[in-house]
Design goal:
Oligomer: single chain
Structural class: alpha/beta
Radius of gyration: 25 Å
Strand order of the largest sheet: 2-3-4-1-5-7-6
Shape: globular
Strand content: 5-15%
Number of helices: 25
Amino acid sequence: MSYSNLLRPKYLFILICLLFLITRLYKINQIPASVYWDEASIGYNAYSITLDGRDEWGKFLPIHFRAFGEFKLPVYIYVTAAFVKVFGLNEFSVRIPAVLFSLGVIIMTYLLAKKVTKNTIIGLLSSFFVTISPYFFIFSRTGYEATAGLMFYLLAIYLLLIKGNNWNILFSIISFIISFYSYNSFRILTPITILVIFILNISYFKLALKKDIAPLILAFLILSLSVIPIYRLYTYDTGSLRFQTVSVLKAKDIFGNYFSHFSLDFLLNGDKNSRSQQKGFGQIYLPDFILIFLGLLFLLIKKQKNSIILLLLLLISPIPAAITKESPHALRTISLAPFLSIFSALGVISLRELLERIFSKKIGFIEFGTVIIMFLFFINYLINFIKIYPSQSSKDWQYGYKRIYTDFQDQLTRYQHIVISDEYAQPYIFALFYLKINPEAFRKTVMRNHVSNWGFSTVSDFDKFKFGKVNKLSNDGSLKNSLIFSSDQDKLPNKEYLNLIKSLDGDIAFWVYQL
């Protein structure tokens, strides 16, 4: 293949996809160092579905998985179940669906940007920028349901913008439905997005009503039916409790939360949650900030109606996070990632046009030069992710629990009781995940605590395992022949420890005792 052929759009796009897959699949089962509780919950419920079609609570093929009481959505779990069936219950099976959904995000970003701007170069740049985006990187190689929601959300928008065939509207609505059954943020974004696109294309939709109306009626019926389980969840079930605990009611807080996602602190210094972003990195790179600004100018100067859609979709992205207590929040605003990348791509074109006006001649190296500069920023990010991030973030990924159930697996069978601190939250789900506990056996012996103020349910014990504050549990005179894992916060005084479990940064995660 000649050099000129490699520069053809389809080959450039293939290279972008290969870059994405290589950087996401590399050590996917080792970095991050452990599954997080949500990944473990997704994986185990998928595992349970493969065995008897029931979730950990015993519900048959549920639409909403109760999990910790927060009700996880079905799309990612059922897809994960297929991989668990083939590859077993492990980190790879839980994370590979996110990689594939995220590859879909790369593809849809390319198609959407190309569709709206009618410019293949902008499409290629957009897909490249989202591939190397620090906003998107960690989410695209760990078991977050949001990636599924984002892919179907972008697909739905793309289909809705294809005019001339009412069946595209039906398929778009189906994609929107799959999106909001993948991740909760899209339950808020979907109606707003449909309204925005409808208003901007009202003449087209009026014309569509005069054509083949059958797919429109079918779309309306399917959408109406899809809302019923959601209505039941928040009206009759306890899903409303979790929603109320994360909701914000004051208008000033909502506005503050919303604008925090466009603040320099968030964009250039990043989400403070190390499961969402590496320390020392922002949600975007510094050159992105300049390019996005130029992209906005480009949009305002060109005044193209279709391109205005991109701006509005960018502006509505923070709304789901704005109405919750934790803001700014990268995961709940994951739809910002592709639209920020598209505006960075618009900024490259704007920069080239600006320089051509200044120097009154064609400048052909701007796109290539920008790609090289941004790729160097990404390489720095990637090296840090491989070399430093695992130890830097192991506590937040609850690495200590993984060590308990993998390093001490043989010893767990020798004791009558296993007592584990719940200092790092939900220790039971790691036992289920790493030990591959039979779901039916778990359901028969599980005892749960009362639902917390945040709407979470926790397990107090099952089989020989007991979870809670070790100081209290160890005073139980019946706990003879016990192996105890105590956090540094509730270690046993005046008791000689048997072993230590350390996080990758060297800090003590658990003190190991025996009674």
